[in-house]
């Protein structure tokens, strides 16, 4: 049936409203509503999906990929990230798309999948409770323990200040980072940081809160929101792969297992350790898996969505792009897209834009990047193998491969497994053990396998509600009672997070926030925390450097503060040299008179208070060396024009 075209007058009126609404919202401080209206508008123009949650998931995926592309032009536009400009362009694009597809005339109601909505609501509640129950320092302390969040904040903050991608104009980053780190940070994938910065502009314009504390609070909640979108994407993929005829009686146990795996197992550690880019890449991979296995029923919309998902993966986590590319090629072959001239054009455009992420990442990386270690938690190996076995059972047994969707799901699982296994073997052959990026690829494998669990509905009988839940209880219990690399550590990561056992570094976060409140721009000095225990001091100094836009001066102090260097220590002479060579004044924050860091012999440090298997003590240094308070007092007396001592009182939760 031919699509009805809207009248020119209707289109003209809609285009006027596309700019009138943002222009009116800004003086009324209602900018925060505009992203929600853009999302609702994107959901309204969907033609390849029918359900309300289908439209929501697809709209989020499409908007993220479109935002990554939009950022390329916005970086060069003088208006940068002004909410009126961003919203006006977005509304204009939606009106033109709606006019071209006929949806401007015929909005359609979308049914709600109640069971899927309940599963997503359950995951949301379990995820939000440990974050809502903490103050800002407690929330920020969770990812701060993973260290990377400080640099993520730095990129997000500078993009917000300068209005665009840093890889297009790295000189804008130079005042904020050391010269030796400029190339690496400027070329880090920035699609999600850009999206966060845009959303923060809408939030700040409404709330009027523009401090570093407000900006980092917004980022933490956006991080949590990204995980919730990942969880929804996985649950939606499970529902989609189960097929349109899957009865709720059969689907409930599968959704329960997938939901439990997300909030109890390894995926939640990606949230708690603060890896926003990886969360976005995993979410894109989950949606891509779902629509490759069961494509949207409109070829044009399927093509656009696959293209935007590839761009989203490229601009957020290029490590997953080989999976995304191979999955897309499977669908291209299945749809025979080469028959259409526009298919070739789309492929070339997507290849060019998607190449930006890996090319910039290669510029930022060393030749041994894939061999580097990191702070990510090691993935539970036995649980992951069990999940792979469940996923293979879902697509292989009972002649599952007769269905094209099951063959596509098997291909997706096989590609994710091959990528992880290949990198693991390479790392073992090179350095003797799998590390960091191997676990990142295991996260991808877990997400893809969770999506494939939808095929399990063929094996489950139609039972009562209690019986359906009982089917999943053994799996959920096995996840909850243990975790760790070999599933031998009591209590799952998600349980520890929910019960407050996984605390991260809340004291360090509160110290960093205190320092940033006292000196928002650093006060013309590098600020060094020596108030408490060594890990707290190191993390707080790192966090404050990012919040105060003084990260440029942090690396010089990192070596002195970092307590993880085995067999090494810092002396008063090392501290004196750092003060003497610092290009800016040094401000020391002290509090606990027992706190100590220094040793007498740097090559053979004596630390009698350090006990194996116990947290590092506040009195970390050599009793014969000066305490932190004594050392900074001596330096202040020696360099009165360069050293300032602040006797601070740490904030309480």
Automatic annotation (TrEMBL):
The keyword tRNA-binding does not apply. Keywords: Membrane, Transmembrane, Transmembrane helix. Signal peptide: none annotated. The chain crosses the membrane at residues 30-49, 56-77, 83-102, 114-133, 218-238, 245-264, 308-332, 338-357, 378-397, 409-429, 441-460, 466-486. The keyword Repeat does not apply. This is Uncharacterized protein. It comes from Dactylosporangium matsuzakiense.
């Amino acid at each position: 049936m031919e699509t009805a075209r809207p009248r020119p007058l209707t289109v003209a009126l809609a285009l006027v409203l596309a700019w009138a609404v943002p222009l009116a919202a800004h003086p009324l401080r209602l900018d925060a509503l505009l992203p929600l209206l853009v999302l609702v508008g994107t959901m309204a123009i969907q033609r390849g999906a029918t359900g309300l949650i289908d439209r929501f998931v697809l709209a989020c995926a499409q908007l993220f990929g479109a935002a990554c592309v939009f950022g390329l032009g916005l970086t060069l536009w003088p208006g940068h990230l002004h909410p009126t400009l961003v919203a006006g362009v977005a509304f204009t694009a939606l009106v033109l798309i709606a006019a071209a597809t006929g949806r401007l005339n015929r909005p359609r109601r979308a049914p709600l999948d109640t069971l899927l909505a309940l599963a997503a609501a359950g995951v949301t509640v379990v995820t939000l409770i440990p974050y809502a129950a903490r103050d800002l320092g407690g929330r920020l302390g969770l990812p701060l323990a993973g260290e990377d969040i400080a640099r993520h904040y730095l990129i997000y903050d500078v993009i917000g200040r300068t209005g665009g991608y840093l890889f297009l104009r790295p000189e804008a980053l130079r005042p904020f980072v050391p010269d030796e780190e400029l190339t690496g940070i400027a070329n880090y994938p920035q699609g999600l940081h850009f999206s966060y910065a845009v959303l923060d502009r809408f939030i700040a314009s409404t709330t009027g809160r523009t401090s570093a504390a407000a900006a980092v609070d917004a980022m933490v909640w956006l991080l949590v929101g990204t995980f919730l979108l990942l969880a929804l994407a996985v649950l939606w993929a499970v529902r989609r792969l189960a097929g349109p005829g899957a009865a709720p009686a059969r689907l409930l146990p599968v959704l329960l297992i997938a939901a439990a795996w997300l909030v109890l197992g390894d995926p939640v550690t990606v949230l708690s350790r603060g890896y926003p880019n990886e969360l976005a890449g995993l979410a894109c991979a989950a949606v891509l898996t779902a629509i490759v296995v069961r494509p949207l029923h409109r070829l044009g919309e399927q093509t656009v969505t696959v293209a935007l998902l590839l761009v989203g993966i490229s601009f957020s986590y290029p490590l997953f792009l080989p999976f995304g590319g191979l999955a897309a090629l499977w669908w291209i072959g299945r749809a025979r897209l080469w028959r259409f001239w526009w298919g070739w054009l789309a492929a070339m455009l997507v290849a060019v834009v998607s190449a930006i992420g890996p090319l910039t990442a290669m510029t930022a990386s060393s030749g041994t990047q894939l061999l580097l270690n990191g702070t990510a938690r090691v993935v539970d190996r036995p649980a992951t193998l069990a999940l792979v076995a469940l996923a293979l059972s879902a697509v292989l047994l009972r002649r599952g491969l007769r269905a094209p969707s099951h063959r596509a799901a098997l291909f997706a699982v096989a590609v994710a497994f091959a990528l992880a296994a290949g990198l693991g073997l390479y790392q073992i052959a090179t350095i003797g053990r799998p590390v960091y990026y191997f676990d990142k690829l295991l996260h991808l494998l877990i997400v893809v396998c969770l999506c494939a669990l939808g095929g399990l509905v063929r094996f489950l009988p139609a039972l009562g509600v209690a019986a359906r839940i009982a089917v999943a209880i053994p799996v959920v219990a096995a996840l909850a009672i243990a975790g760790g690399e070999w599933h031998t550590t009591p209590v799952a990561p998600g349980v520890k997070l929910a019960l407050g056992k996984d605390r991260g570094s809340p004291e360090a976060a509160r110290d960093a926030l205190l320092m940033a409140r006292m000196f928002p721009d650093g006060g013309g000095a590098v600020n060094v925390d020596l108030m408490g225990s060594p890990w707290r001091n190191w993390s707080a100094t790192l966090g404050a450097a990012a919040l105060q836009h003084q990260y440029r001066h942090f690396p010089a102090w990192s070596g002195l503060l970092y307590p993880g260097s085995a067999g090494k220590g810092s002396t008063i002479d090392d501290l004196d040299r750092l003060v003497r060579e610092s290009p800016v004044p040094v401000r020391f924050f002290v509090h606990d008179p027992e706190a100590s860091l220094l040793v007498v012999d740097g090559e053979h440090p004596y630390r009698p208070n350090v006990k194996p298997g116990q947290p590092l003590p506040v009195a970390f240094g050599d009793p014969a060396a000066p305490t932190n308070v004594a050392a900074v007092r001596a330096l202040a007396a020696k360099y009165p024009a360069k050293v300032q001592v602040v006797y601070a009182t740490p904030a309480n939760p």
